[in-house]
Amino acid sequence: MSAFDTNPFADPVDVNPFQDPSVTQLTNASQSGLAEFNPFSETNAATTVPAAQAPGPSQPAVLQPSVEPAQPTPQAVAAAAQAGLLRQQEELDRKAAELERKERELQNTVASLHVRENNWPPLPSWCPVKPCFYQDFSTEIPADYQRICKMLYYLWMLHSVTLFLNLLACLAQFTGNAAHGVDFGLSILWFVIFTPCAFLCWYRPIYKAFRSDNSFSFFVFFFVFFCQIGIYFIQMIGLPDLGTSGWIAALSTLKQGSLAVSVIMMVVAGFFTLCAGLSLFLLQRVHSFYRRTGASFQQAQEEFSQGIFSNRTFRSAASSAASSAAQGAFQGN
Questions:
Q1: What pLDDT, in 10s, does the model give residues 162-184?
Q2: Do residues 299 and 204 touch, judged by C-beta distance below 8 A?
Q3: Quick one: which of 180, 187, 193, 333 is 20 to 30 A from 249 by CA?
Q4: What residues contact 150, with CB distance under 8 A and at least 6 apart?
């Protein structure tokens, strides 16, 4: 029949929405799963009940709001700042103590290096006269110059011994012949004067020259030591009435018949000859060392001028003289 045979005025057919095939399939599957589930069965421990999830529309990702840390309180900030200041203060105190300790050590070291007690001449502690100079070859003189400096010191000692022996020889000559009283008196004078003068005028300058490489001290040594060599030759010759027991004086005494006194005077003349020979040798050695240092006369002049103008006594004397001259000029006007 055609569709026109349907009666539009008839009662509508009751349609059960739960009889839809898609719905009945889902309900039957869930009921069968529930009917088979036994909560007291051991096999159900690993059995899971499938759940049907209805597909739904995808949801957009939601960003969680960031949680800001709690702000510290003013009391906490003040406490942290105070603790930091205390740590810095402790560090500064520790560094200050360390710096003070190092400064004390440095001062002690400088004091031990530069402030030394004089040790020459070596006098006993009970003596009222104290040493006047400090002398130490190993610490003050460079290793290259220590040997020549010691040789010059030994020459000065030989010089002193020779002058003392000359005094004894002149005493023996004066004992044998009263006419030689002038020689004995002059021998005492030479021993008293030339012994300290040799130490101060040529030994100490060469010691200072080797110690500090001072050109002016070298020139002082050369000048004075050259004069000393001339005096040695005069003493070695032994001219009469000069207070020296040289070869001429010894031979004159031998002619007078005093053999013992003549022998003593010849020994002293030999010592004067030895001093003259050693002096020439050491002068040549010192000059060779001086040439190696590269010093010059101009440098010696500069050192002399610097030493003079830096001397406080010289400056005070010069200022006093200048002020006196100025006052005299004003008063004259």
A1: 999 999 999 999 998 888 899 99
A2: no
A3: 193
A4: 137
